[in-house]
What does this fold into?
Amino acid sequence: MSNKVQVAVFVNGKKVQKKVEPRLLLTDFIREECNLTGTHLGCEHGVCGACTILVDNEPVRSCLMFAVQADGCDIQTVESLNSVDGPLNVLQQSFSDNHALQCGFCTPGFLMTLTHFLIDNENPTENEIREAISGNLCRCTGYANIIKAVQQAAQILQKEKSNSSVVSAQ
Amino acid sequence: MKKYVGQSVKRKEDYRLVTGTGQFVADIKLAGMLEAVFVRSPQAHAIIRHIDTSKAKELPGVHAVLIGDDIKGIINPITQFESHSAVPPNVAKEINPKIQYNDESVLAIDKVVYVGQPVAVVVADNRYIAEDAADLIKVEYEQLKPMVDPYEAMKEGSPLVQNQVEQNIQMEFHLSIGDAKRVEQQSNHVLKARVKTPRLSSNPIETRGVIADYDNRTDQIHVWSATQLPFEVRATIAHCLGWTEQNIRVTAPDVGGGFGPKGGVHPEEILIPYISKRLNRPVKWVEDRLEHLTSARQSRDQVHDVIVAYNSDGTILSLRDEFVVDSGAVNFFGFTCAYNTAYHLRGAYKIPNYDIKSRIVLTNKTPNVPFRGAGRPEAVFTMDRVIDMIARKLKLDPVEVMKRNMIQAHEMPYDQGILVKDGARLIYDSGDYPAALNQALAMVDYEGFRERQKELKKAGKNIGIGISSYVEGTGAGPFEGALLSVDSTGKVIAHLGASPQGQGHETVFAQIGADALGLTPDDIVIKVGDTAVLPFGAGTYASRSAVNAGSAMHEASLKLRNKVVAIAGIILGTLPDEIVIEEGKIFSKENPSHFLTLQDIYKRSRPAARPPLPSEIEPGLQVTHYFVPPTVTFASSVHIAEVEVDKETGFVDLQNYSVVHDCGTVINPMIVDGQVQGGIAQGIGSALYEEVVYNESGQLLTGTYMDYLLPTSMEIPTVKKGHQQHLSTRNPLGVKGVGEGGAISPPAAIANAIVDALSDLEIVINQLPVSPSRLRGLIKEAEKKQSTILSK
Ligand code: FES
Ligand code: FES
It folds into this structure.
């Protein structure tokens, strides 16, 4: 099949332009065409959340989208969370600190779901966190430590924010 | 010295996994790599009349299409895994097993025996083309009568799943001590019950996957597989393909969960290497979730018919159990799960007369293999339901019946009078089960709960509490090895045969090595999951890695330390006994300021070093240790579930879950707690949500995540944990296994809690999962029964 179409997207801030088959899944585009294998496929039918990425700042299951549907969009994957070989960001570090991952296969999906969640929810309750991650399946951890990690991350982010607002007020 | 063992050291593996730079099988890309897709049987039991692959072969981009006829006589079938299924002679004498040979061809030949069985494989430039081609393959089947119910399968004259397995009974055995039948006849109280545990699918979030890369020049093949058992995969490839084992290297890269079934070598792990060699190209296959749910090995699926005699004070006098394991179309692991069930069933209880008969039956379903707990959750669900039923019959609190029958601390070590699967006597090495029970009861304020329960009942609310306990043989042998060496940078490189799927091996083994060697965990690089690094290895299953690989690591580290201090003594001119190693500094007690590093020792140990070492010390810094445990170590636990049941909907709200457990020495508390919480989550899944369902024609009804329900963050409470540390006497670290434990007790604890919440209805829950519809059915039935009694 060679009815390829042009797709232009921003992936983690970089412009990517490719000719792809219309049936190419967005996940495969990211993994195979962009070589970003942090976005994982766990079910390919929209249930597990392992493939979650941000498209125009909204969490999206990339297994349910074709690459062509993302044309012109701004995409963020787990690889955007820290610089290559650089220190972990607050959320990533909180995951490690709290043992919120075992095999780590589900983790990129959780991180992307939560990256979005923490923007609008500075001080989430346990229940709000549970709801936020209820669309992501983890078979290893039993979720408890993921919830702890989010609580830690939220606290640190809030502190950072209030510090920086103090700084900017000065 | 214990400096790092016992600490919640953060995991070395995390950085790559939280940055998306881990490497799972699906992430590996090789130049010129092709992709494979499998055509699978849509029939449970059928003769293959004809396969037309012509259209598929013509499709541009397709490189190969293979069917059963193409491999007939070329690829040997996968047979029982000898290392797991062999019955030790003394066990055979006790249980008198009857075993019939069974196997699976890696592509179906002549007939199919389960839905999802590989029938053809297509290899193409990429998966999209391979799937197009797979759609073009036409298979004509002639249906045979499917065997779905194991009891029907065992009937004389029933159609056979595998022609040579008479009556579809692949294996049976009988274990007996005392005289249960006689005791029953003399007893005033006899309980009979049928207890069922459902078929489950382990569902690691990473599906299975295989890549093979054949090198023509050296005749070597490198296989990457999302496996728990790289050494078993290597041996099975060698067996099935007739290749030299040493030409096969199997690597398990980052593996996204396993829980058992990724340890059963599957047909794809044989075919992909075969095709890679045939095409002389790297070939990749990654399972999709629908394939996982149909074709990846499944587990559990037992039916127990128990007869129990007991006294009016709750003392159990005898237990007789005839149970059937529905193994699906093939049984690869021999009596592993069935005998685990048989030898674990009595758990923490003393039951002098014990008689157990097991039959492993083949049916037209996906083959079963061990899954987290491997026969133990089935045993514990049966036993703890029995305890609860006795308590309710006698109108006693279940705690009383538990205590009445429990092995006491002063009776340790306790001989259960039978043999472990490995042939050793079943002797519990250490533990205090009554203390664990009391600690757990205190954690949940049992008395307080009972009062609250009464109050709430008046307000029409049904809360209940349920308890389960287990004693688990963990750390099964046969062995695990560690090969340690020091490189020119002074780092210790440790190769281990146990390959992880999320258990943090790179961290915990470094902790063990650091303590034994006087280093920090960062000084030690752990290499796992690769058959190239060590001649022998077993793998990660059966809660065994901390025990076996951990002990091997410990002993090898001590050996390496001996060598290091001997050389340091020579350099520093003092006796080895005078040498201290601390945080990587090697010095004589007398003069700590003058220290050497491992790099210095390395230089001095090289062959042809100047000056050379005395001839009695072999050059090089490399040691190997294989740890062979005398038998399993016995971990134990008490679980308590608190639920509220909505009578109208049958919905169960799991409000609290508490556990007290003993896994001996804890190497890394953070990781142990994580294993417990994660195991319990899977146990909760199997108690309330998960079940693989086949209809009467052997069609799978739970082929997506809409039908096979995995618990989410909304269903799993944060478990309250209490610890005991009764060290094992069977390894140098005092550790017991912990990986599986969490998954063992939740079905029993939760079912007991539900029964307790509805005690006025006297319902009996002997089947899982307790889904709202199943429970609502039981409630309706009970209510009807009560109203007819009232109206009489
Ligand atoms: S892979 Fe997309 S939701 Fe599971
Ligand atoms: S850490 Fe393994 S699936 Fe979440």
Notes: The two ends of chain B are 74 Å apart (CA to CA). Chain B touches chain A through 59 residues (CB under 8 Å).
